[in-house]
Amino acid sequence: MAEAAGQSVEIVEVGPRDGYQGIGPFIPTATKIAFLERLAATGLWRIEIGSFVSATALPQLSDTAEVLGACAGIAGIRPQVLVPNEKYGRAALAAGSTFLAFVLSVSEAHNRSNVRRHLLESVEEYRRLIAALPDGIDVRLNLATSFDCPFDGRVAEADVLALLEELVPILPDAEICLCDTTGRASPDHVERLVAACHARFPQARRWALHAHDTYGLGLANVYAAWKQGIRVFDASFGGLGGCPFAPGATGNVATEDLAWMFRRMGVATGVDLDALVPVACDGAAIPGGLPGGRVRHALTASAR
Amino acid sequence: MAEAAGQSVEIVEVGPRDGYQGIGPFIPTATKIAFLERLAATGLWRIEIGSFVSATALPQLSDTAEVLGACAGIAGIRPQVLVPNEKYGRAALAAGSTFLAFVLSVSEAHNRSNVRRHLLESVEEYRRLIAALPDGIDVRLNLATSFDCPFDGRVAEADVLALLEELVPILPDAEICLCDTTGRASPDHVERLVAACHARFPQARRWALHAHDTYGLGLANVYAAWKQGIRVFDASFGGLGGCPFAPGATGNVATEDLAWMFRRMGVATGVDLDALVPVACDGAAIPGGLPGGRVRHALTASAR
């Protein structure tokens, strides 16, 4: 383990946002808060706790303001919320959020479908939101369809870089997350894009990867990104996060699978895997959820 | 895909051996032969069709001689059979096998449990089998527990290299397969061991990786090995191959997942993925089987 000695990564738990958003039956707010308490107790301090979005479009996350309020009482948690435009960015700030994840898509078709705007409009809304940002707010940029688009297929690396030419100068301090929205990124693709981003934007402070495991490549893609120097990874407890438009497709790479891989590599995550597995099992059992991942099966099936 | 252009890999379909051996209800011989015909028709020409082993220990594979005989009628197939010692190696040759996969374990404890011999006895049996080998027989060496042992935990790279110092000179022409028996190898471990093997044994003709997906790391480990130059990979259709000693644990990395990953990478496998998916679905439905893998779900759930 010489190579990894002393290294660490940061896991961003996105189950309470990406994992829940496709679940039909409303998860009671108290249940959401109880899961946040249990997740934070395992050492998962960065948690995407919800979205500020249209309650009509995503009723499951309509209680995000209330959940955010409850985070004040959860030791160690650093809650981030997803926002799809300027208006909801301001709403999140008004609700007391101090960590915004602004999402837009590299693919024009997906951006229109996901946030109902032309890509250039999204860029301008991001610019205005950042220009008016109060002090002390952390920002992440989520670049959906950085590898592949459900409508247009493989996304060219040049398109990602061209969009970043617009976005990075707006706030070089933002964390930039390359999102594999469809799960169709392959590890060689991840390697190439991450290397190109690092080379082109040395001023960007920090990069992250958001991997889906729909085709079983979640951990392979995380490993490829890690080899290229990425140290921040999104994941979802119980592997929650199936896409409502692709029944049977699984969701985000499972937090417990990620924690297991890095533990085997001797890379610190700060996560207590033994404490996480029962939470992941309970998350996977949320009615209407579409769980994934291997490690909770392997660790609960065997006494070893 | 510049990096991968023009590259190819060889997939060894091991479902009919490793996938079936843990299944309790006997799979009728005609069913086994029908699956081989369908698998070969997808382009999977190298197939491990069974083992010559004690019928008491592994009744599921007691019909391997008959299955091997039927392969003469299957276009394009190159059947290999697993043998655990000299006696069964000779039995396989007597039955007409021309491709033997000799298995022994790096870990003494696992070797005793798996093939009921001291490791040095296994080495000597391999030596004698090779010394008396007729012309025209291909040989592979399966090194079980090359990364981790169910009894002793992580296996030191030095132990693998020391064992190979004995084995490689016996037949440098043999294909050597590093087997992740427990699925607990991590991709950095795979990278290091493969690099060390290549450096120490330049005379060895060819290396392979046998990955399990118990902890979701099958494809990550395959990718890591591919980056280090390995071009032969074992896999099991439908991800069959759960370990009877770890209920809930999944088996070999799924052939269709491997074929998908390499297709996305632009690396040729010779496998027709669209033809393979229905075979994998039927394989996953074999009574008593413990299937795995993601790609058959993703591709059958979505019209895309």
From TrEMBL, chains A, B:
CDD domains: DRE_TIM_HMGL. This is Hydroxymethylglutaryl-CoA lyase. Residues 9-277 form the Pyruvate carboxyltransferase domain. Pfam families: HMGL-like. GO terms for molecular function: hydroxymethylglutaryl-CoA lyase activity; metal ion binding. Belongs to the HMG-CoA lyase family. It comes from the Bacteria. Keywords: Lyase, Metal-binding. GO terms for biological process: ketone body biosynthetic process; L-leucine catabolic process.
